[in-house]
């Protein structure tokens, strides 16, 4: 199934063993060396243990000899660990010094409790497209993620594309990566950042260059005007409930930056940083019961504020913002 269909199977890849780009391939190769090498050493150790327990005096004398202890207990670990150190440093150097082509696409990612703000500088006269919990990139082009934190320490990890990078308040770190083929993969915060750290995921959508340009063109547009009375009611509910005090909807009077930008929220794959699939029903459930679904999130539940019709209307309006 494709993105946005309500089945998250398309975006659950979150493994260093499923690389989507050259940087992740280098890390995957090192991972396989560690897995296979560690497995062989473990089996050899268990075999020697079995010989020591059940073998006769002859094998035990060999295992207890000074020569065997020096070779197996000193020389072998020194050689293996030194080789792994050299290999790891070579992979690290290769990741840090990969030749770059044209000017990379710069994307800003800001970690917040407990969601991700994503900015595309220069894509709008006012600064750039702003979205949340989803990073769109073109296949084959170098991408520079400029990451920071808006509150506490976070850490961004996209296992299928690169290693981890810290997100530090007051500092910007950079991570360069490239997707080799289209796909939708999952990323995660890997630095404990509070009560809902475990529910702070995001998706990376790697698209063909043409598909990425079409995505940009759609997201340059302001929010669509309601096309019927029910959607217009939803917009009024949004205004009356004070949602614009925290959220921006480009093309309207709402431009707050406390919570995620909702200009095209209906087109996103998930809600609440990967917690829920995104459709009208989950939008209503999220608005009504934020604190039941994600306790500690900086948004109140509106189940005692909005009645059923109001919830359905505002959910329908938000879903229409594509």
The CATH architecture name of the largest domain reads Sandwich
Instruction: Give the SSE order as H and E letters.
Output: HHHEEEEEEEEEEHHEEHH
In CATH's first tier, which class of the largest domain applies? Mainly Beta
Which shape, going by the Cα principal axes? elongated
Structural class: alpha+beta
What is the fold named in CATH at topology level of the largest domain?
Immunoglobulin-like
CATH superfamily of the largest domain: Cupredoxins -  blue copper proteins
Low-pLDDT runs of 5+ residues are 1-10
Tell me the count of domains: 3
| Euclidean distance between termini CA atoms | 19 Å
Give a quick set of tags describing it.
20% strand; 3 domains; iron; Immunoglobulin-like; five-stranded mixed beta sheet; heme; 38% helix; disordered N terminus; C-type cytochrome; 322 residues
């Amino acid at each position: 199934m494709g993105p946005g269909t309500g089945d998250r199977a398309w975006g659950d890849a979150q493994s260093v063993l499923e690389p989507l780009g050259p940087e992740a391939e280098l890390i995957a190769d090192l991972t396989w060396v560690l897995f296979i090498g560690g497995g062989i050493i473990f089996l050899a150790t268990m075999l020697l243990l079995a010989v020591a327990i059940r073998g006769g005096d002859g094998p035990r004398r060999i295992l207890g000899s000074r020569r065997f202890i020096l070779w197996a207990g000193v020389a072998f670990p020194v050689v293996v660990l030194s080789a792994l150190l050299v290999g790891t440093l070579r992979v690290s150097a290769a990741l840090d010094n990969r030749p770059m082509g044209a000017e990379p696409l710069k994307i800003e990612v800001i970690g917040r409790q407990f969601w991700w703000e994503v900015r595309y500088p220069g894509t709008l006269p006012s600064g750039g497209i702003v979205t949340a919990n989803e990073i769109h990139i073109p296949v084959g082009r170098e991408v520079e993620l400029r990451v920071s934190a808006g509150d506490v320490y976070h850490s961004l990890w996209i296992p299928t594309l690169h290693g981890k990078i810290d997100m530090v308040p007051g500092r910007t770190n950079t991570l360069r990566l490239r997707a080799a083929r289209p796909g939708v993969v999952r990323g995660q915060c890997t630095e404990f950042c509070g009560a809902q750290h475990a529910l702070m995921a995001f998706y990376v959508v790697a698209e063909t260059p043409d598909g990425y340009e079409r995505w940009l063109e759609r997201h340059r547009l302001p929010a669509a005007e309601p096309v019927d009375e029910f959607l217009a009611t939803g917009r009024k509910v949004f205004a009356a409930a004070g949602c614009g005090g925290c959220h921006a909807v480009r093309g309207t009077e709402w431009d707050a930056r406390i919570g995620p930008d909702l200009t095209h929220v209906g087109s996103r794959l998930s809600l609440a940083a990967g917690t829920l699939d995104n459709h009208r029903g989950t939008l209503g459930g999220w608005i009504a019961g934020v604190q039941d679904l994600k306790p500690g999130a900086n948004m109140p539940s509106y189940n005692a504020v909005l009645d059923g019709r109001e919830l359905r209307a505002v959910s329908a309006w938000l879903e229409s913002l594509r």
